Amino acid sequence: MDQVLAGVRVLEVATWTFVPAAGAVLADWGADVIKVEHPVTGDPQRGLMTSGLMGDGSKIPNFMMEQPNRGKRSIGIDIRSEDGLELLYKLVETADVFLTSFLPAARQSMKIDVEHLRARNPNIIYARGSGNGQRGPESERGGYDGATYFARGGHALALTPDNLEYPLGPRAAYGDLPGGMTIAGGIAGALFRRERHGVPSVVDISLLSCATWTLAPDIMASKLFGLPKLPTGGNREMNPNPLVGSYKTKDGRFLMLCMLESDRYWPDLCRQIGRPELIDDPRFKDHAARGENKTECIRALDAAFAERTFDEWKDELLDAEGVWSPYQLPIELHDDVQVQANGYLRPVESDQGTFNVVGNPVQFDETPPALTRAPQHGEHTETLLLELGYDWDDIIRLKDAGAIL
Fold first, then answer.
1. Which residues make beta-bridge pairs with 61?
2. What distance in Å separates the CA atoms of residue 40 and residue 42, rounded to the nearest whole number?
3. Nearest CA among 352, 379, 341, 355 for reference residue 67
4. Which tens digit of pLDDT belongs to each residue from 115-165?
5. Which of 57, 59, 11 has its CA nearest to residue 32?
6. Cα–Cα distance between 375 and 397 in angstroms, integer?
7. Tally of CB atoms within 10 A around 114
8. In whole angstroms, what is the distance from residue 23 CA to residue 33 CA?
9. 46 CB-near residues (< 8 Å, 6+ apart)
10. Chain centroid to CA 299: how far?
11. Spatial contact of 283 and 229, defined as CB atoms under 8 Å apart
């Protein structure tokens, strides 16, 4: 049973990926997540062509819409209209959680801030995702993960080697998806607090707060050691432990060794790579010696790993005692035996056929979530209005007035 939030209703007024990703996680966990979209424009994510990959959209699902919106129901409401706002408030009365990405001034203008919603549902949990947080001189500035999380949050320069002319660029939703998972965790905590203590929370998460959390060791150490940033791991010979680092295979692929307890794993590694004579080599006999002679040790390991291909090493090192991993391309994760065995990619049916979305990282009762596609724009408008007690004459009137899709 993976529907741990069955019976919980989440009302989502949010766009793009960061905050909607939280709604997707909650839907994975069994919540009824209702995505409120403008009846004409919808979530702008629906129209995003990512990196020119989607072409005309006739055959490839809109993966940037599917990942953060699977499992939801969509209703098209113009909440800036009087009828639309009243309809939203009626949904609020049925909801446990309100989830939004709108900034403070917009929330006030649209009458969807905390005080507006709690006038209709005093027990609703109010969750806000923002770029820069709810306080401070830049609280009204918007944010995207590429700018706020990756650039401002320190990740870009922490990861960029010093010899590059420009910083590394971010990957799509690099901060949005872990940020959305963080929002979902905060909402889960708020649901527990309300159930246990009867207190509804206001939950705040920002891209900037998530960026600082995930870069915490670098941020703390930079101040303590008085460094602008910690050394980037591009130069292996700066590392005193040759058993931590990247090694190239015969066919130009790479393996990552991460054997922090080097004395524990050195003998087994030497045997695994066919170099047992290195075990007792005076230059490499213990951690201190390998650190003192790290250049020679790295060269010896380089020579050994260069003798076999990437696939050969993946088979050869399966029973190695220390931690290592292949550097994989994203497409290779579809065939990764551990990804498959644990159900980390989940099949979804759509008009474009079956495709995989990535499940959220939490599983309950050893069961991967069963996922459904993202909703079409306003797909469930009529169904939800009927559930609220509206009749067909009401629905026609609201459509004619432009309040709903």
1. none
2. 6
3. 355
4. 999 999 999 999 999 999 999 999 999 999 999 999 999 999 999 988 899
5. 11
6. 24
7. 14
8. 6
9. 62, 65, 377
10. 37
11. no
